[in-house]
Amino acid sequence: MARISPMDIYKLLPGENCKECGEATCMAFASALIERKKKVDDCTLFEKEKYKAKKAALIELLSPPVKEVKIGTGERAAKIGGEEVMYRHELTYFNETAIALDIDDEMSEEEIIKRVKYADGFSFDRVGQVLTLQAVAIRSKSGDESKFGDAVLTAVENTDLPLILCSYDPKMLEIGLEIALDRNPLVYAATKENYKEVANLVKKHNCPVVASSPRDIEGLMNLTRDLMDLGIENIVIDIGTYLDGEQFEDMLDNLVMIRRMSIENSVKELGFPILTVPMAAWIGEKDSVKGGFNETTLGASHILRYSDISILHSMDMWSLLPQITVRQNIYTDPRRPVEVDSGLYTFGKVDANSPVLMTTNFALTYYTVAGDIESAGLSCYLLVVNTEGLAVEPSMAGGKLISSIVKDVIVESKIEEKVNHRNLIIPGMAARIKGDIEDETKWEVSVGPMDSSRIPAFLDDHA
Hints:
The protein is of the alpha/beta class. It has helices at residues 6-10, 26-34, 52-62, 109-121, 145-158, 170-179, 195-205, 217-229, 245-263, 288-304, 317-330, 363-375, 392-397, 403-413, 434-441, 455-461; strands at 68-71, 78-81, 98-104, 124-126, 129-131, 135-139, 163-166, 186-190, 209-212, 235-238, 275-276, 309-312, 343-347, 356-360, 380-385, 423-426, 444-447. Strand 9 (209-212), helix 8 and strand 10 (235-238) form a beta-alpha-beta unit.
């Protein structure tokens, strides 16, 4: 699929530069549509009859080759899929992989509540971003309709996260759908054996469904085509999850092939979000360490191979953290460095004699420095200068870390009113602008360590 350019979009816009959309020109609006910062409906002129045909053509043009599917309702609803490129540097990825924690209907009510509440409240702060889990998957393991219904009800009562109802039995799925009536759950799964019954259910309840055809791309295409012919639009696809050997290799190849065929070859039958099940690593596994390790490596492999939603079992942080970290790294826009706000930050119990340090506003740099300061229990001020999200070394190389912006943050932060000295400690990599900063700010500048882990020792030596 050829990349859409702003000019492709501009040709379908009214071209009146009315500014009603909030952009200065229609060309700027076209660029904003590509970045998904604006929606087609933001152009009020499309309400006019003469532009209706253009609007329809524009919506078709902007529809991503991988359909975006919404699971759940309200503020915590998860959007999966909706991607347009194979490689994030081409544009970026927009909807991060949704991670679900599983429960099954053979667990006790206490265990179900514990796991549901863990998923509901999971939060991990990494370089200024709060990482969370997005869903709860409820599996029919017992085959007992009453037990499955109770498990679904317990989940509904204890979280507003999106739900995934897992069974191959349409009768079991119907029970779950009746209980989770207004929650727009994802139904797992329609197969070539049961797809007609499952299709009737998801049409009745207007919810998304997983089409599952393990290790069979052609069969998967036939299945999604059959579902679409029955009027089902919100489909998620499952090509199977395997742990090792030839099946593992085939699984990774199939994941890449599906995404490539949907984006580069416009195969509509495969243009849907992909579901993977790393918790399959626990099947028959009683060793919690081995099970968690295998699930972690499998889950990370899936995220790296275009998984849009993933079902996990482990609640151990050592197992979850690598996966949510990989996800964060992949779904961060590579064109825009992750930044923190410039300005003055305080640590510990500062006073007029506390040292003043400086760093850049690249998030990873800031949180590394802040972590080293906090772990050492230091009391100090930290001036964060705006280098447009670049770390110290690249900001020095690119001319972003200069004396004038250091002076700006000193003035704007009013640090001179908070301390009775004029001593600034700058990063070791910024040593060559020491004199420039002194001339510009009239502060005495000390060149600190190259590595922020050495800040405590540096302060001890210069006390």
